[in-house]
Specification:
- The chain is α+β, with helices and mostly antiparallel strands.
- It has one domain: Jelly Rolls (Sandwich).
- The protein is about 25% helix and about 20% strand.
- The protein has six helices and ten strands.
- It has a seven-stranded antiparallel sheet. Strands 7-6-9 form a three-stranded antiparallel sheet, with no helix packed on it.
- The longest helix has 18 residues.
- The structure holds 2-oxoglutaric acid.
- 2-oxoglutaric acid binds next to strand 9.
């Protein structure tokens, strides 16, 4: 398509300008969320509901299984489309297979919580359960989900994540507010032909906090944070609900 390249260029320029100007993170209603870009809420989901959800998902942790067998429920292995995160599976559209996740979605608690944190209405997009088998070799490095517009996620651990060996979701606190560093990262990514969401050249895992928790712990995050699954996941299959949250356009 002749117009595709100019349209992409205009979009990228728009992202750069918006990234440079973005101040909105400072105006979140929650001071903690404004300053750190995330909160960890232990016991967000009852331990019994987390355990029921983990049981619902257990049949899908069979690596040889490629089809869910349930209409509308998809099994997506990252290994089928990329060379990193080779031990990550997402089960997409989990409501029909997990009454516990269905109840969480129907409760609107995730939208209410992120709205309380940001002060903005947000809508729930995709709802998946992520299955992470141990991986100490192929984890994706520090990245953002977007530079602009901001996107948000709620993660709810369904299995214990007690240390680096369980592959915790990890973030560089406050990095959602950085603008100059992001512009440096975007420029480097552009020059090197990397995806523009890679930020490992300007942030280090040494600055990242591992977010630990028992089953039922929720993490709400501004996904402009530099983040990654901890790359020394050596023990235990990690299960977590991932809810995508967006500002309506
Ligand atoms: O697996 C993780 O903890 C990282 C997840 C992640 O990078 C994401 O959802 O954007």
């Amino acid at each position: 398509m002749v117009l595709a390249a100019p349209i992409r260029a205009v979009r990228s320029a728009g992202q750069v300008v918006n990234t440079a100007l973005a101040r909105s993170a400072r105006s979140y209603r929650s001071e903690e969320f404004a300053s750190d870009g995330f909160v960890v809420l232990p016991g967000f989901l009852d331990a019994s509901a987390a355990s029921a959800a983990a049981d619902d998902i257990a049949p899908f942790t069979d690596r040889s299984r490629r089809e869910s067998g349930v209409p509308g429920v998809l099994i997506k292995d990252r290994s089928q489309r990329q060379q990193r995160d080779l031990n990550v599976r997402q089960v997409v559209g989990v409501v029909p297979i997990s009454p516990a996740v269905a109840e969480l979605a129907a409760s609107r608690r995730m939208q209410d919580t992120i709205e309380d944190l940001t002060g903005w209405p947000l809508r729930l997009g995709r709802l998946v359960v992520q299955i992470d088998w141990p991986d100490t070799k192929t984890k994706r490095g520090l990245h953002v989900d977007s530079h602009w517009p901001p996107t948000y996620k709620a993660f709810v651990y369904l299995t214990p994540v007690r240390g680096p060996e369980n592959g915790p979701f990890s973030v560089v606190p406050g990095s959602h507010r950085d603008r100059l560093k992001k512009l440096r990262a975007i420029a480097g990514d552009y020059r090197q032909g990397r995806p523009r969401t890679a930020v490992a050249t300007v942030y280090s895992l040494a600055d990242a906090h591992q977010l630990l928790g028992e089953p039922g712990t929720a993490i709400f995050a501004d996904q402009r944070l530099a983040h990654a699954g901890w790359p020394e996941h050596s023990t235990g299959t990690r299960l977590m609900v991932v809810a995508y949250l967006y500002r309506p356009r």
